[in-house]
Amino acid sequence: MNVGAADMTLLAMALPFVAAGLAPYLVRLMGHRAAWVLALAPLSIFIHFIPYAGLVANGRHVTAGFDWVPSLDTRFEWFVDGLSLTFAFLVTGIGTLIVLYSGGYMKGHPQQGRFLSFILLFMGSMLGLVLSDDFLMLFVFWELTSVTSFLLIGFDHEREASRRAALQALVVTGAGGLGLLAGLLLIWNVTGVHSLSGLLQSNEVLRQSPYFLVALILVLCGAFTKSAQFPLHFWLPNAMEAPTPVSAYLHSATMVKAGVFLLMRLNPVFADTPAWHTILPIFGGMTLVFGALLSVRQSDLKQMLAYTTMSSLGLMVMMTGFGGEHAVAGAVLYLVAHALFKGALFMVAGIVDHEAGTREVTKLGGLLRAMPVTFAAALAAAVSMGGLPPAVGFLAKEEIYSSLWHLDPWSLTFLACAVIGNALMMAVGFVVALKPFLGKRPHALGDVHEAPFIMWVGPATLGALGIVAAIAAPFTHEIVSSPMVSAVLGRASEIDITLVPHIGPPLALSGLTIVVGIVTYLAIAPFRRAVGGVLRAIGWGPDRGFDQFVRGLVRFSHAVTDRLQPGSLEVYMTVTFVAIAAALLVPMVVFGELPSMPTWPTDVTFYELTVMAIGIIGLVAVLIAHDRLTAIVSLGVQGFAVALLFMLFGAPDLSFTQFMIEALSVVILALVMTRLRLAPSDHRPTGEKLSDAAIAIACGAGFMLYLMRVTEGSFDATLSDFFARYSKTIAHGHNIVNVIIVDFRGTDTLGEISVVMVTGLAILALIRIRATRTDVELGDNDPREQHDPREEGSHGKRTYAGVEAE
Amino acid sequence: MMRTLIFRTVAPYLTSLMLVFSVFVLLRGHNAPGGGFIGGLIAASAFAIYGIACGVSPVRRALRLHPTTIAGIGLLLGSVAGLISLFDGVPFMTGLWIYPHFFGVEVPLATVMLFDFGVYLVVTGTITAIALVLEEREGE
Amino acid sequence: MEALMAVVIGIFFAVSVYLMLSKHIIRILLGVTILGNAVNLLIFTAGRIVHAVPPIIGEGNDVPNRITANPLPQALILTAIVISFSFFAFLLVLAFRAYQELGTDDTDEMRIAEPENEPVPPLGY
After folding, report:
1. C13, C39, C99: best mutation site toward chain A, by most A Cβ within 10 Å?
2. A317 pLDDT higher than 50
3. A438 and A534 fall within a common domain
């Protein structure tokens, strides 16, 4: 591809995000008709990708991109082959119809702009996900779809059920995404390859690595959570809290298929390994059967469809993992068929809900006359879902049955799963498509009209496509299914199944499926009660488990916080000083670094000893002082002793500063403390006194030994010598200390005087809050003054009131 | 409490003396013990003593500027002293010296001295502000 | 000489830690002040001690003509003294204001930021 085409692809990938930014303004400008304009975005992307179909049909694939984070070896690179192109068509094609549908469904909703914006954001994320080549890019878009899904499920965020469902989906799929990230990073580490296209070409390294199974399981974490495989399926039915366009788009046609997409994408890497061919069919098969059984139990149109979606995803996973050309072909055909019929059926369910006001299947009936177009779309989709000719679902089902038809227990088990699942799904599909429209119309429904064109165009198109694709099977296979199967298998492959039935076991199995399906359809009500009874008997499921998990998490973190932050300063201080003492003493003892026993210094003078003694006396006096004034004066004594020590040891500057500071400290301490009515002294219980004293002595001894050890060693005077040598010659000052402060380290000093000034301002602020508060306290009794905005600092007052109220 | 007659009488003189001394300490700081920090502390103590002796309002009147304003000016001078060197094409805070002659006497002037003066003002202003505000509460 | 100072500094640290372990905010404040002195002395001593020769270059010389006290720790400590004073003043006012608002100087009774028996946060969504 030339550069222009690559630029166009990048533009196409960016377009949904741009449209998302514009959506709210367009809606404000044009109301729900903005959907017509916004639908042009996905439509033009769809058109952009059409030329690729020819390339891909010839067995080629396209990669292009540019450096994104070169230091991390990460590129923004896309990879277009049969698989990603089919997904790109599904995302943008169905996306176009969904945007239109949303225009009608959300018409007049005050947040319609936001909704369309989220839908387009999701579209961009999903498109990026399926086109990603680089691992990290794949992960980023993967999580973006989780986030946008969160936003869309929680769209109606004022309802608790929505919030719960949104959070649940985010937690489950987001956690799975992290697993996927770990898996991809592991693969990157093992193989040194960080792009999907690269990995597909050199997978031997990974297969022979001891980390193969770990990498596989981590990747499956991502795929299974996203594609709602049992037992991580529970978020999907709850996600039906979202508005119906979201359910149709994200939670049936596209996002939930991301997991399947990932499995298909990595099939050439992982296939033909025992783990792959065991784990996938088992989980897929379980999901298929459980999903189908659970869907029968529901009576809400969307819930029924949600569980069959789960079931279909299980079928796809099962077929992908089962292996073999026909199995993969079945999975691929089913994937396309499912996107078409399930999208259509969800939109139908939304239309029925929108027009009739309920989705409860037991309360619906007889809408055929009022909504013929919708009924036609529903019928076409249901035919495909039931696997009946002449729909593409039939092709998929035939392919699946013929690939599973082997006379060994393993294959027969999954064949049984497939038959049961398909039969139940067929029954449910026809319940959704027929029950609301046929039979007697309940009086409660009132007057119902056909949906507007903007709404029925989506399901009608998708339903019709499901039939057309099957009738024009050779063409469909050439541009869609065969390239996709080749991409999934990693080698060229052709699909040739058509609507012309071949007499054989698959056809017989289809007949069996239809019979079971019809029986279930007719006996749906007792069946529903039976499954419901069994579930009630079990009583506990992963859905409730999630609630308990969240509650437990909150309680646990609360308990941990309570333990770590008991709110007692004394505890914090004790912990801190015990840690300090340990940090000082333990390493010295463990590593034998204790200082040697010092000898009495020869050069110590009487004056120095006296000053030290005065300092220590001052300290002791502070400790045992019984009244404040003694304590303050004693504090001054130790401070002056320190000043004298500085003087004696050749630091006149320090000495003067210390003198001034001590004098000022004593003065302001006296000023403040005489105004407090404090208990005269400490009354700690004796036990506490002893333990505190032990900690204090340990700290003191620690610092003492540490300092002795430090001063025992040799002294590196390089820096001091530097200052001594250059203080006069460069900085023209005789007082080296002052030169360091104002010249050599002037920038430090600038910072330090700023700190001094800030503390000064803080002190003034503290005092002023006091003044304000007194004012407002008086005002409290006077309601007229309470909300006077001119009153300075009324904000501070409110804080106090709030605190006191607690 | 501490406003004895003798103290009140002596305080203004003591304050003036300390202020003069503080400037002296500031200026000699580059070559002998002293400097902006010590000078500023002496000046702040002077105002604190005046405030204790004669009350806070006379001090505030005598200062004319609010003490934090003085500190702010000091911080500004300190920053300006640093910035001047930028205009000379050398890194921030590089000391620059000039040696003008006044009446035949060479007077060394430097951005470093300006900076030290800034330190002096910040310390004086801030600590005076703290001391005065605490003394003020005494009167309530 | 340094070893002797180390003993004195150890006593400074011990006393300040003991005071800071008190419940009473004023005692903690006294402890903080002493801690400042202890740390300053620690830095000072770690730079080695010389008797009575300030780090000032004599008139007419370009470098000190005899061994002087180490100027580097002195420069560090000088600013540290002023900063620790301003923080001491801040803590003092803070303690004073806390006392005025809450009527206590016992840190166990100051529980506005971390109230006792705080209810469990909401468990729903």
Report:
1. C13
2. yes
3. no
